[in-house]
């Protein structure tokens, strides 16, 4: 299941926060945490707020991502610029994995967030793809 397609989460146009939800159960009990850009989210990152709670055998987590409006404005600007003029270095294959500016292009809101469920018996990852509705329009 860890290699399944990411679950899309659409942020409505105009919304300034996005919410990602994850839920898991297991015996023994499950702990949840989130990863983004391949790294665990740090508690001191004010942009990400996590709320975790238990209901019977279930552990639930709600991750709130702030400042989505900033990303939408930057992405609109980026797409607008790209549509007005052809990219420089057209002969190069653009590889997001090798492009040092990829973080700026995709910003910190977009991309895959991973909900990681762990207990002593193992780890399960579930990918959620955060997308901005109305980008580039």
Can you put this structure into words, describing what you see?
- This is NPHN protein.
- InterPro entries: Ig-like_dom_sf (IPR036179), Ig-like_fold (IPR013783).
- The radius of gyration is 17 Å and the shape is elongated.
- Strand 7 and strand 8 (122-132) form a beta hairpin.
- The protein has one domain: Immunoglobulins (Immunoglobulin-like).
- It contains two helices and eight strands; from the N terminus they run ββββββααββ.
- By secondary structure, it is α+β, with helices and mostly antiparallel strands.
- 16% of the residues lie in helices and 42% in strands.
- The chain has a five-stranded mixed β-sheet with strand order 1-8-7-3-4, with no helix packed on it. A three-stranded antiparallel β-sheet has the order 2-6-5, with no helix packed on it.
- The chain starts with 6 loop residues before the first strand and ends in a 5-residue tail after the last strand.
